[in-house]
């Protein structure tokens, strides 16, 4: 069967003519109606009507976010944004942020930092459940740093072996201790209640004003002590002359 070509009206010649293969059809300002199908490329300044069956359409739209969200507010696609400015925001999944600047940020879950080398806080950082430093080093600038180490009783002190070198104050005893050689060692305390006298444990007192050291007993070499009166009925050893 020979090829068939559509007939078109040529107003210039006032006659019907066949549209040969490769020719183009200029409809001017008219419109196509009831066209069953078009084979090839159809070019027009505009299209109207139901385009739901069209495929492979690339669109460029300049619109507001409100217009876009009016068509749907959810998407499973990944979206990349530039700077975002807003008053509130809610994220239900994982959020990755390269740079964040905000007046207040509230996190209901857990913040996980990967390879953080510097944290710059303009104000005071508050950690309600404490801070755990796994690297073993805490460094602070010189100045009025305040790191209290207060425990109610001796039994509340942590393991001296695990925290070797730690200093602590025990409120029940009113004394200070440091961890060494697997034990908590009591530090010499200057007790203001005794007017500056130094108390060593419970048996030794060094009186600041008189220079007297009081203890329940003395042991060791006393050869350099002077003014010591011997008591008791021990033997008298005379190595030189005795004048009476």
Characterization of this structure:
- The protein is an all-beta fold and 244 residues long.
- Among the domains are: 150-186, no CATH class; 188-217, no CATH class.
- 3% of the residues lie in helices and 14% in strands.
- The chain contains 1 helix and 10 strands.
- The strands form 3 sheets. The protein has a 4-stranded mixed sheet, with no helix packed on it. Strands 7-8-9-10 form a 4-stranded antiparallel sheet, with no helix packed on it. The protein has a two-stranded antiparallel sheet with strand order 1-2.
Outline:
This protein is mainly β. The chain contains one helix and ten strands.
Structural class call reads mainly beta
Return Rg in Å.
48 Å
Number of strand segments: 10
User: How are strands sequenced across the largest beta sheet?
Assistant: 3-4-5-6
How far is the N terminus from the C terminus? 165 Å
The major beta sheet can be summarized as:
4 strands, mixed
Name the shape in a single word.
rod-shaped
Please tell me the overall pLDDT.
Answer: 76
Q: Tell me the β content.
A: 5-15%
Order of helices and strands: EEHEEEEEEEE
Residues in helix, %: under 10%
Number of helices: 1
| Quaternary structure classification | single chain
Which segments are poorly predicted (pLDDT under 50) over 5 or more consecutive residues?
none
């Amino acid at each position: 069967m020979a090829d068939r070509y559509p007939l078109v009206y040529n107003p210039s010649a006032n006659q019907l003519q066949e549209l040969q293969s490769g020719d183009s059809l200029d409809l001017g300002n008219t419109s196509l109606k009831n066209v069953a199908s078009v084979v090839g490329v159809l070019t027009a300044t505009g299209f109207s009507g139901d385009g739901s069956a069209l495929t492979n359409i690339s669109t460029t739209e300049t619109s507001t976010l409100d217009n876009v969200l009016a068509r749907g507010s959810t998407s499973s696609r990944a979206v990349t944004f530039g700077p975002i400015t807003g008053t509130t925001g809610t994220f239900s999944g994982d959020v990755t942020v390269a740079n964040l600047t905000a007046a207040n940020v509230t996190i209901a879950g857990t913040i996980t930092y990967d390879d953080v080398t510097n944290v710059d806080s303009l104000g005071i950082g508050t950690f309600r459940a404490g801070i755990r430093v796994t690297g073993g080093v805490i460094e602070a600038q010189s100045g009025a740093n305040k790191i209290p180490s207060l425990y109610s009783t001796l039994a509340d002190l942590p393991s001296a072996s695990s925290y070797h070198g730690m200093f602590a104050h025990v409120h029940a005893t009113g004394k200070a201790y440091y961890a060494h050689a697997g034990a908590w060692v009591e530090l010499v305390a200057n007790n203001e209640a005794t007017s500056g006298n130094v108390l060593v444990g419970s048996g030794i007192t060094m009186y600041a004003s008189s220079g007297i050291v009081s203890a329940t007993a003395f042991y060791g070499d006393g050869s350099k002590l002077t003014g010591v009166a011997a008591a008791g009925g021990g033997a008298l050893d005379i190595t030189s002359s005795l004048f009476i």
